[in-house]
Amino acid sequence: MDAAAPASGLVAGTNLLKKLVRFARGADTLTVAEKVYSIAAFLAIVTTFLLVMSVQSVRLQTTYRHMHASSAAAAINVGRINALIYAVVMESRGVYMSTDRRAMMPFADGLIRRNRELAEAVKSMERTVSNDDAEQFAAFRQRISQFIEFRQELARRGMEISSAAAREWGDNSANRTVRSKLNADIEALERIYQQRAREADELANENRYAAAYLFALGLAALIFAGLNVVVMRGSVVRALTDITQATDRIAQGDVKSEVPHLRRHDEIGRLARAVQNFRDAVARIVELEELELGTAQARDAAMTERDNFNDKYQAKKWQLSAAINSMPQGLIMLDGKASVVAMNSNYRKIYNLPETIQAGSATLEEILQHRVDSGLFSGDVSKYVAAVLERIAKREPTAYEIALNDGRIIKIYERPMDGGGWVSVQEDVTEQRQRERILERMERFLATIIENVAEGIIAKDARNLRYVFVNKAAEKMIGMTRGEIIGKTARELFSSEAAALIERRDQQLLAQKQQLEPIIDTIDNPARGRRVISARRVQIGGTNEESHMFVTMVEDRTEKMVAAA
């Protein structure tokens, strides 16, 4: 079996080569796919060679630039080092040829500075060293170190001993030997860098050949691309245009139109024969349509009615979906078997239902199981579902609240549906219950404070001036119970003179908004006689508000006035 596969591939390749030869001689024996694949194969081969030559050219260019740059840098460094060696020698001569120490000091300082520059130049030159000059450079660097140490010692002798001691140390055969060897090292390094420059020039010549190869391969790729355009235009595009025009004529009802390219043996010929079969089928359809025109009209009318009904159904469905999703409460509908018929987005949000739970496929049991998994329900799922089924069967509406495990409180209203089933509207009332508890605590707190303050506190409705609240202190001051006071006006409780004074104070409060400074009045109390009172008044709300009230804080000062008298 393994040997058969290469053999079959060889046979296929031989057949394709024979077809290409016959095609070159003028016989149209290739299919469109074979034409396109052949050109694409040749284009791929040329592109591969082009890529390889491009990589080679880039490699040669990189090597050339590296060699050229390193040679130039090395030549510059050699010249700089040679100049610094000469400068050091000149400074050395100045040291040991000076007559006194003061004249010698500038030469000694210059010698030390040049030695430092020479060391830095050698260190900089070390970055350009490659394998071919590493050994030579190592010897050169060691000799430079000896040269620098020798010159440092010369400067030291000149500065610390005398110029004669420096001359004795510097003007000898050992010094000249080191200098000669340094010159030989520099000349050897120059020869190495000249050889490297020649090799870089040879690489540049090779790169010119690579550029010529790249041009030739690019030209070949361009030729194959142009050939591909010519083949596609002549064999495919023009033929497809002719077949498209024939198809348009057939679609317009010209079933006698001729289909071109039927004699071709490639894909275009097969497409042309398929279009001819299509033309024949259209001709048969036209005949059938003429025979069954009445049936077609009836069918069209039925389809139109069906489409209209479907449009109305979809519109109603969309309206219903939009309505239930716009509800602020969560809604779920179940059938008689507790399968989910519909639910809105707020219901999904309350219980954080995943996308896998959808109306039409999910059940109440699955929703409860998800609540168990997410920690929102800790009861018995089976018992809960059984209770719901029982309520569905009894068709009894109910309303109740449940507390979820995460602390939320859900208000649930259940109603039976016509035809069986059950609908539940659920609302998250957690914040409402919290506000109610806070309000209840605040009311108890305020009531406790108001009932136990020493001042009398009286509130009346600003719209009809009837008393709506009095505290214990106010009951004691007035001498009546709150049951006798609440709901009545001042004229129903006090004398006409006292009522007129109270009404006048109410009008002043309405104009001033508030009277925080106490006002002293003497008033006839029907139960306790003539009393001296101090009153402060505030206005709550506005004239257009239902909660518009007058609040009076009263202090009975009768006993204090008597005591003061």
Structure explained in plain terms:
The protein has four domains: 1-25; 31-268; 327-434, 2-Layer Sandwich (Beta-Lactamase), CATH 3.30.450.20; 453-564, 2-Layer Sandwich (Beta-Lactamase), CATH 3.30.450.20. 67% of the residues lie in helices and 13% in strands. The relative contact order is 0.04. A hairpin with a 5-residue loop joins β1 (330-334) and β2 (340-343). The chain has helices at 4-24, 32-97, 101-125, 134-160, 163-170, 173-251, 267-291, 293-326, 345-351, 364-373, 381-394, 430-452, 472-478, 482-485, 490-493, 496-512, 558-564, and strands at 330-334, 340-343, 398-403, 409-416, 422-428, 456-461, 467-470, 514-525, 529-540, 549-556. It starts with a helix and ends with a helix. The protein has 565 residues and is of the alpha+beta class.
